[in-house]
Fold:
Amino acid sequence: MSAMDDVELRHLRLVKAIADAGSVTRAGEALHLTQSALSHQLRDIENRLNAPLFHRVGRRMLPTEAGRRLIETAGSVLSVVRQAEDQVRMTARGGEGTLRISTECYTVYHWLPPLLKKYRLAHPTVDVQIDASATSNPVQALLAGKLDLAVVSAPPRDRRVAVHPLFDDNMVVIVAPTHPLASRPYVRPEDFRTETLLLYARKEDSYVYRQIIARAGVTPRGIQQVQLTEAIIELVKAGLGVAILSEWAVAPHVRARELRAIRVTRGGCRRRWSAVTLRDTSDLPFVRDFIRLMAGNAPRPASVATPKRILPMQRSRHA
Structure:
């Protein structure tokens, strides 16, 4: 057990108050403690840490090096605790708090900003935080308490979560207008044998790759991982590869004739997206409102390739 395991919140409040006030007397007044009680608590924490925290210069209390480090920590920790307490009290009163969001595909982040603008007009007191670092496994982050809502195409079968269907996402192959595949009505798995395929994630984590390309026993000429939609689009425009992306994400480039979008196989391919929350979180009004907003504002570009079937999504993480 480290020495810091002995530090309690009351100790952090005490050293912060002494540092702010500059004397034991004024700190005691701020904390509603007698000078004797405050001095006793200060000796207690110094004994626990085996380090003096203040130099006593006359009536002034000047922090030691150890004291300065603890005071810095106290400021950060106490700020977080105050925010948490405020959010708990607000939520208990039926109010609003923080909404932490992540998705399992980077493309979806391009759809969220307009929705967030609308949402903030209706819920100005909600602190919406987008956690892109949880994209690799948002459900795991949700179950670990690091997220409040995850947008996924493969919702887990877990009693701890609530699943809210949102929309279906049409997947298309994008190629440069002069590419040999540009005139095809659809792309077959075997067509990828001569192509460099640009993927968001590793091929092992890509549903489209695993279920359409690898399942057909096809190996593309090359695979390049690029975790940025704009970069993938520019590489495809330059004729440096092909990609499989959401139709709505590439629709502006298709309408501008910068890209050609083609159906994925004869039957097409769609992803079905859902919002996943912990069961108790799903009942909060500001969370329900955000889910309704997403479901009511699904990306729907002008169709460039209407698929005929929806492929079952299982254990997917990325496009």
Remarks:
- Residues 41 and 272 are 58 Å apart (CA to CA).
- The mean pLDDT is 84.
